[in-house]
Amino acid sequence: MNSQRRRFLQTLAAMGVSVTAAPLFADCKCLGGGRVVIVGGGYGGTTCARYLRRLNPKIEVLLVEPDARYTSCPFSNLMLAGIEPLPELRHDYRSLQDDHGVRVIHDCAVGIDTDIQVVKLASGAWLTYDRAVFSPGISFMWDSPVGYSRDTVTAMPHAWKAGRQTRILRDQLRAMDDGGVVAIAVPPKPFRCPPGPYERAGLIAWYLKQHKPRSKVLILDGNETFSKQDVFEEAWAQLYPGMIERVGVSGYGAVTRVDPATNTLFTETDRHRVDVANVIPSQQAGRIALETGLADNSGWCPIDPHTFESSQLPKVHVIGDASIAYPIPKSASAANSEAKLCALAIVALLADEAPPPASLHNTCYSMAAPDYGFSVNGIYDVRDGKINAIDRAGGVSPLAAPASVRAQEARHAHDWYASIVRDSFG
C-alpha cells in the first residue's frame, strides 16, 4: 500500500468514516493475491466474481449490488406471454457467498478514486481495491423519444429492466380488449439485447392469438434491419399471419415523440394511438459509468479488448452491456464470456504475469412460441487491437427448418438459460 493511500485511510478513520480496508499483501507477488471490488450483480459481475475465486481463492472478492435478488432480462419475454412465471427469473447471491467465498455488499456504488484505489458507497463506506470491475448494465436516455421520462413508465412501460416493469406490461396486455393494438417502439442501435424487441413481438402475438385473436402488434422501429431478421419474419408469417406489422426507419417508423396521456406515438409522418404502448427508450452505460468518467462521449465505455480494462481509468475493468465490445452484441451470454476473460486477465495481472490471449463468444436464443426457437452464435478473437468475429465459426439458425428442429432449439433455449444461471449465480 503506498504512503498516500495509507495516509488517506488513516485520515478517514480519524474522521469516523466507515472504511473497509484491504489486507496488506506484502507477499502479493508470491501469492498472486489481492482484492477485487466488483460493481454490479448481473450476469457479468456475478460470473467475474465466481471465476476470480475459482481461478485463485487467494483473491478477496467484494461484489457491490444494491438488490438482494437479481431479476433476469433473458426469458422475461416469456413471462409477458404467460409461458414462464416471474419467480423463475429471480436469483439471489447466497451461493456466491456460501459456496464461493464472495463477500456480497448490498449497497450502491456512487464514485471511485483511482489515485488511492477506492470505490465509494452510498452508505459512506469506502472499499479499497487492487483491481476494480464495473458491470453496471444500462441506463435510459430520458426524453428519447421526446416526452418519455421516469414519470411515464407506468403508462408506457419499457420492461427493458425486468421485474416491476415486466409485470406492468403483462397486466396491460391482460387488461386490453380483444381487437386492440400493442405497439413496440424500438430505439436506434446500440441497445441491450438486439433481438429482444422482435422476440417480444412474437411472444406477445402468441399470447394474443390464444386470448385476444383480433388484436395486432405494431413494431415502430428506429432501425432498418435487425438481428435474425429473416428467421423472425419467417416465424411471424407461419405462426401469426396478419398479426404483426413492422415499420422500419426508412418507412418513418422511428418514434420521435410520445403522449402518455393519450397513449399516442408520433413518428416523423404519422401518429399512432394504441391500446398498449411498450416504449423502449434509447440507452447508454449505467449511471455510475457516466458519473465516474468510465464512459466516453458515446455514452458507452471504451476498453482494452485483451483485458477489458478501461481506456479511461487505470486498473478498472468494464464488462457487460456498458462496454464497447463491438461486434459482440450486448447480451447476457456476451457478459458471461467477457467476465471470464476479465477474470483470467486480472488473475494474471495481480501476479505480474501477461494475460492470456483473448477469446470470446456469444450465444443468443430467441423464441417465437413455446415450441419455436432459433439462435445466433459467434466466436471472437482480438487482432490488431480490435475484437473480430471469426469467419465461419458461428451463424444463424437456417430458414425453412422443420417444426421438430424449431422445437429442439426451444428446448435448447431453456437448457441455455438454466446453464447460464448456474454458471453466473452458482
From TrEMBL:
Coiled coil: none annotated. One of its GO terms (molecular function) is oxidoreductase activity. Residues 356-425 form the Flavocytochrome c sulphide dehydrogenase flavin-binding domain. InterPro entries: FAD/NAD-bd_sf, FAD/NAD-binding_dom, FAD/NAD-linked_Rdtase_dimer_sf, FCSD_central, FlavoCytC_S_DH_flav-bd, FlavoCytC_S_DH_flav-bd_sf, SQRD, TAT_signal. Pfam families: FCSD-flav_bind, FCSD_central, Pyr_redox_2. It comes from the Bacteria. Residues 166-281 form the Sulfide dehydrogenase [flavocytochrome c] flavoprotein chain central domain. Residues 35-137 form the FAD/NAD(P)-binding domain. PANTHER family: FAD-DEPENDENT PYRIDINE NUCLEOTIDE-DISULPHIDE OXIDOREDUCTASE, PTHR43755. This is NADPH-dependent 2,4-dienoyl-CoA reductase/sulfur reductase-like enzyme. It comes from Methylohalomonas lacus.
